[in-house]
Amino acid sequence: MRVVRLDREDDFDGWRSAARSLAGEGVAPEDIVWQIGDRAADLFADESLGAPPIASARPGASAAPLRVSRQLLELARYAALHSEPERFSLLYILLLRLLDQPQALQDAADPLMRRIEGLARNVRRDSHKMHAFVRFRELADDGGKRFVAWFEPDHHILRANAGFFVDRFTNMRWSILTPRGALHWDGAMLAEGPPASRTDAPGGDPVEAVWKAYYSAIFNPARVMPQAMLKEMPRKYWKNMPETALVPSLIAGARKRERAMIDQARGEPHGKTQRSGPDALVLLAEEAQECRRCPLWKPATQTVFGEGPHDAEIMIVGEQPGDNEDLAGRVFVGPAGAVFDRAMAAAGIDRARTYITNAVKHFKFEPRGKRRIHARPGSGEIEACRWWVEQERAIVRPRLVIAMGATAARSLTGRTVTVGRERGGAVVLPDGTPCWITIHPSYLLRLPPEADADAEFARYAADLRRAAKSLATIV
Ligand code: URA
User: Fold this and answer.
1) Closest ligand 1 atom, CA of 440?
2) In 10 A of CB 395, how many CB atoms?
3) Last residue of a domain, one of 158, 179, 200
């Protein structure tokens, strides 16, 4: 029996290094005990039970040169943070399997793969909740102001997420206390602390007013639907969140405010009220990274969310990310993006001042050899992703939208649009926003040789220009 002692619950590097050596030696999974921290499992290392233990797993120690894919490493890195006690053992079994059959990583039906993907998914979700729902409360200590938050993660995600909070709150002194350990940042150095309890964290304070104001602003039916928000905010987090004290009154007031918005929209069709600032978009984009509303997330590299100013006057909607966008995580950066950029310049529209997004946020493709060939999203996928587009629109509240291509037009209008017939004109969406329709730039990349490419391009740019110019006529 071999005992591997990992330094901590989240000691992925320790697991990786030990797993390499053990796999190199051909040690079977059932002959390994993965032990974390203390010496309790040394019982198993008793000589009567077999070989002596590996003293400790150190990154790089006697690591055999095994080659595994980035995809496996990424998956394992997340799964290793799960609270499942068997995770290190399961990962080792998977490692041995993949060394033999690398293609098993793509086998969605494989029960071990499914289990480990499930672990990784739970960990990603837990991290996402931590980003969204940690709430700091202000305290005074010897060094001055300190912001302290209490959070209860389901998994061992604390250290892995430290960078997120350091980046975001670099200039604050803060502590995040959890039952699994604590993080303390003093503006320059990060320190770890022992597990804490809820009573170590403070109650209410002035910082809460900021959160409450922020949540009241985004809890606006014209921006973020209450149901959507409640769904994304599991009840177990409510008790830590000052703004949830507002939830009953927000729900009660939602209908009234909705009425008021409609009335206001009647009198002032495209007026903007109450911008909620960029944070609402940032949160939404983070949530979208976890989107599982349709199966497209699975083969895609990542969710490619919209980008641009949170208060843009123009929102432009494309179809879906292509191969380049899927890898870069950004909209319109590939060949269609180059045509789009040229047409925007020709139309006199500043891309940096528009909000640009896609009707579908994941790349849909068919693998062909090493290539990934674009596949058109179906109506179910457009419908599933419409939820995100509507939320983007509710936050940005553009004065007009431009749908590029049939998929975008369908997403925005909710009906089938024949672009050839309706391009160059606008339809009015139920909330009063004009929606201009034009071709998708990739249409220009697929023109038959006999087509007049310059004329087609000029027509596309003219569609964009006409839409943008109509802003002057919208009061
Ligand atoms: N096509 C789109 O519709 N969107 C992109 O982001 C890229 C290509």
Assistant:
1) 3
2) 25
3) 200
Residue 72 near residue 80, CB atoms below 8 Å: no
Q: Is 303 in the pocket of ligand 1 (CB under 6 A)?
A: no
Q: Is 363 helix (H, G, I), strand (E, B) or coil?
A: coil
Q: Are residues 186 and 295 in the same domain?
A: no
Q: Same domain, yes or no, for 330 and 433?
A: yes
What is the reported pTM? 0.49
Q: Are 220 and 272 in contact (CB under 8 A)?
A: no
Q: Is residue 30 part of a domain?
A: yes
Mean local confidence (pLDDT), 426-445? 95
Residues 300 and 369 in one domain: yes
Domain count, the chain: 4
Residue 271's pLDDT is what?
Answer: 34
Query: pLDDT at position 460, please?
Result: 98
Residue 271 lies in a domain: no
Question: Does the beta carbon of 325 lie inside 6 Å of ligand 1?
Answer: yes
Q: Do 169 and 52 sit in the same domain of this protein?
A: no
Residues 6+ apart with CB under 8 A from 42: 3, 35, 53
Beta-ladder partners of 5: 35
Which residue range(s) make up the domain with 153?
134-200
Domain membership flag for residue 345: yes
Domain C-terminal end among 174, 200, 226:
200
CB 399 within 8 A of CB 275: no
Give the model's confidence band at 264: pLDDT under 50 very low, under 70 low, under 90 confident, else very high: very low
Tell me, what's the pLDDT at 131? 79
pLDDT digits (tens, 9 = 90+) for 226-256: 444 445 555 555 555 555 555 555 544 554 4
Q: Tell me: do 346 and 448 sit in the same domain.
A: yes
CA of 444 to the centre of ligand 1 (A): 13
Q: Report residue 72's pLDDT band, with 50, 70 and 90 as the boundaries.
A: confident
Nearest to 34, CA basis, from 1, 6, 76: 6
Find out whether the beta carbon of 306 lies less than 6 Å from any atom of ligand 1: no
pLDDT in tens, 399-413: 999 999 999 999 999
Q: What sign has the CA pseudo-torsion 273, 279, 285, 286? A: negative
The Cα 155–Cα 120 span in angstroms is 10
Q: Which residue has the tokens 């507002």?
A: 246
Q: Read off the CATH number of the domain in which 287 is found.
A: 3.40.470.10
337 lines ligand 1 (CB under 6 A): yes
Say yes or no to pLDDT of 377 above 70: yes
Query: Tokens in use for 464?
Result: 């964009």
pLDDT over 50 at 334, yes or no = yes
pLDDT at 357 over 60: yes
User: Nearest 5 degrees, angle CA 341-CA 300-CA 412?
Assistant: 55
